[in-house]
Amino acid sequence: MAEGLGRGLQSPVQRFESAPRLFGMTALDGIWNVRRTAGLLPPMIGVHKRISGERGETRVGPLPGLPFRVSGLSLHYLGPFKGFVDELEPDDVGFRGRALFLGRELGRFELRRLEP
How many CB atoms lie within 10 A of CB 95? Predict the structure, then answer.
């Protein structure tokens, strides 16, 4: 059990790691709608994340996606977007996220599953 948590309580990472996995899928696999909730992020109209295993991409409408690598509950962007990281935490209906650049928070968002 994680230090500082009461008996029977789990940290966000423990909840993620114990989430069901079906046929090799992780709790993050699927297509997710992104909605801005706070900070400097622009409106997220038409923004989706597609995640499969250790890889994914953030897409805006029909435009090519921005690729990222999945590491636990962190999405590390690649190529020219290296330095951007989305940190996720499970909630009751999906995930809450913080968008970071070089460790500084730019904004907050939520992910809601569109398709498994």
Answer: 22
Confidence (pTM): 0.76
Burial of residue 104 (number of CB atoms within 10 Å: 0-12, 13-18, 19+): exposed
Report how far residue 20's alpha carbon sits from residue 26's, in angstroms, rounded to the nearest whole number.
7
Domain of residue 43 covers 12-115
Task: Answer whether residue 4 is part of any domain.
Answer: no
The pLDDT, as a whole number, for residue 3 is 47
CATH number at residue 60: 2.40.128
Range name among 21-25, 26-30, 71-75, 111-115 with the lowest pLDDT average: 21-25
Tokens at 102, concatenated: 């070089």
**113 strand-pairing partners:** 32
For residues 81-100, give the mean pLDDT: 96
